Amino acid sequence: MTSISPVASPVGRVAPPYPAALMIPGTASWRSTLANNGRIVLARQTVQIGRMEGNDVVLNDPLVSRYHAVIRWTPTGYEIEDLGSANGTSIQGQRIHGRALLIPGQTIQIGKTDLVFNVLDPQQQPNPLNAFPPPAGVQPGGMPYAPSAGNATLIAPAPYGAPGYAGYASPQGAGALAYAAAGHPFYDMMARKRDNGFVRFFKTEWRKQYWRVFLLGLIAYFVVTQVLLATQNLHMVPLELLLASALVPVVFVIFCFEQNAFADMPLGVVGITFMSGAVLGLTIAAVLEPLLLPPTIAAANNISLSAALLIGVCEESAKVVSVLWFLRDRRLRSELDGLILGAAAGMGFAALETAGYGFVAFLSGFANALSNPNASTAFAIDQGVHQMNHSLILRMALAIFGHGVWTAIVCAAIWRDRRQSTFRLTFGVVLAFGIAVVLHALWDWTPLLQFLNNNTDPLVMLAVVLGWFLLVGSAGLFFLNFFLRESLRRAKLGPAAPPPPPLLQAIITDTFKPFFGKPTPQPAYAQPVMMAGYQQPQQSQQPLPGQPQPVVGQQRAPYCPRCNLMYPPGTQTCSQCHGSLV
User: Fold this and answer.
1) DSSP string for 58-87
2) Global confidence as pTM
3) What is the pLDDT of residue 297?
């Protein structure tokens, strides 16, 4: 029997080598959008496995990393690659380094979870296999065949373990291109399987606890506020300040925890970072600001742009200093680690700052009321509570736009450009710090307030202030979104991810590529790659009519094993992942 390798489709995609699936025996906790009858169908060209939400296979195992491993279709079969996970990936009990070819029947160990790789049993396929008509060159039911002497000969696999076994064959020539483009009906069905966006969001978020904690915290805050107003018991003031200042940061930490973003990062590190940003960051800022700014200017409600920039430099430097000592922790090496640590430190800083602003607002309202000779102490307390509530509610509503975002931007850039060093002061780091300082300064400056006065309607004033904050906050979320998407892309590539391009170039390219980006050159075929430690199945050296040639002249065409793309001779890097070609 002749075994035939799959070829790439006209858009540069590799056809599935044969229908295959993973099965997770025992009581391991997992979920996957590719699950069908208890099996995880490898119905996509890349299947990400890890602990973090967003993987194709999510394993609820404390020993599994955020993005632990990936299984890919390749011209030689299915391969698995460990993505630099903390606890490694093993096949049949033997730890792998990098990539390895999978053979049906093997057991993959990821953390404490076993995944059995095997050919998809035809009995497990759903009945409506003909829901998508098979392309030319494929028999109804999904079994491919190759043209031979003008007729169609069905190619069946040999028994597993039998001499010459190489799995299911894929069609060749024009039939292969159609097969890869249209896809095996079952694979196409699974790949198109999608819930309604709202339904999918509801299913995912309903089981989470972060929004329940947020609602419970809001209810508790308003209950405490009403009790304080009714009883004027000043013992309730610290409780209200605590609820208002800690609610959003605590919900943020719970959200990240439920997304498994803290995998590979001990919870103690997150807690220390939060407290470091709060205590150390706020203390450093409190020492620096009086040295650079007169106290009257720093405490004013409407400050100049230059003063706002100096405040931004002081506070952003203080928060970053509270995180930099984690650069020596070898467990925290990725851009995503820096982003999470920066956000945690910024949220800690914001929590204590919110409590401070609330306390100052209470004292200010209380003192202003007592300045009236006819005001009673009860009236002064009532005014102080009302002014404190206005300050706290505004800061709670805007907490997601402020300190956590700015510090995350700076720390993501620091970890992004550090490479193998402890710290590298690059243009990208300076640029990210400048972005954070400018956003912070614009937030404090609020130039629209100069057009308002005491006679302005309070609702108009509130709308103007909120509009300005939302405008500046949206700019911050834009940059944060860039770093988040880039860090996730790099995390999925593991330690072999190529060095990132310069930050400014990356931001411009990422922003305008959807509008002006040039289409990526796509090859017409893919070259099989030998995997270390495994022997490639024996294949015929005589291509069928119409089969694309994997050799151009006497020179082997360069091939990207990550993207499964082939390039013209002389090309050295992949245009998609920028990795080296083999």
Assistant:
1) EE--TTS-SS-EEEEEETTEEEEEE-S-SS
2) 0.75
3) 53
